[in-house]
Amino acid sequence: MSNQAASTSDATNIAKAEGAHFAAIVAAVNRTVADEPAIRSNIAIYKGGVNLTGKLNLTKATDWFRPMVQDLLSQDVAVIVNRIGLISSLNRAVEDLTGVPADWVFQQNLYITRGREEAFLPHYDPHIVVAAQLYGRKEWVLYDKAVSNPLIVDDTVSTAVSKSQDDLAIKERFTVGAGDMFIIPRGRYHSAHAVGGPSVHLAIGCAGIRPVDYVWELATRATTEDALRADTDPESARKKAANFLKLAELEPLLLPRNPVADFAVPKGPARLSFAEVLDAL
């Protein structure tokens, strides 16, 4: 696939993750779901766009993840695991297969659904999403509506559609299977549901550095400067601000990324650690 990471082309290009690439994606998931404390703090349960997590008791069960998935999916809800671990081999797989630079990857969220229920209503994300199907089949709908360069205050926030799905014209509808990866352009409204049984996909958030990131970083740095917070007259305030900006140009701005772990993964395709639960459904 050519490097069209920031484009909104008319047709969705679908790449196939195989061998070591697919194994790297699955390894990141398995590594995370084996960490019970991490799962407990990063799991969410949705149904029809409604977050049910707070109403469920997810803290007392032991050896809980697989039976919980089976029980909850029987109730036609979606199980979401946020903050799937970042590993360098997965980031490289994203770059190899989609053209999105490896260092743009900053987050990954896992979505487990049983049937046609949707975890979220049609919505857009303020960053590029690379969707990687890991189990089962899923139908995706991309809509004509898109927001150009949406404001990013927090890259983990998605903006839901306030209108019903009928108010959105469908741009493209397609179904993917295990190993398929594709790009959802930043700002593009979309929705998805499982087809013919349980589905698992990884939503990989990707974002480059935008000029406004530097403005926000400078503003944050300015708030820590005691002299810049002091009361003064307008002319002195302007001069102090101008001097701060001039000095800031001489220093590199370090914009943090989530830490990436570098460890070996199997060379062949791997199996999701909880796949037997999904097979039983």
What does this structure look like?
- By secondary structure, this protein is of the alpha+beta class.
- The protein has helices at residues 19-33, 36-42, 65-73, 88-98, 211-223, 234-248, 275-280, and strands at 14-16, 43-47, 50-51, 78-81, 105-113, 123-124, 128-146, 159-160, 170-176, 180-184, 188-206.
- α1 packs across α4.
- It is built from seven helices and eleven strands.
Short description, anyone?
This protein has 281 residues and is of the alpha+beta class. Helix content is 27%, strand content 27%.
Defining key terms:
elongated, 281 residues, alpha+beta, 7 helices, 11 strands, 27% strand
Q: How far apart are the termini? A: 34 Å
Q: Which spans have pLDDT < 50 for at least 5 consecutive residues? A: 1-9
Q: Please bin the fraction of helical residues.
A: 25-40%
Approximately what portion of the residues adopt beta-strand conformation?
Answer: 25-35%
SSE-based structural type: alpha+beta
Shape category: elongated
Order of helices and strands: EHHEEHEHEEEEEEEHHH
Query: How many β-strand runs?
Result: 11
**Rg, Å, rounded:** 21 Å
Give the count of helical stretches.
7
Major β-sheet, in short?
9 strands, antiparallel
Oligomer: single chain
The average pLDDT score comes to 83
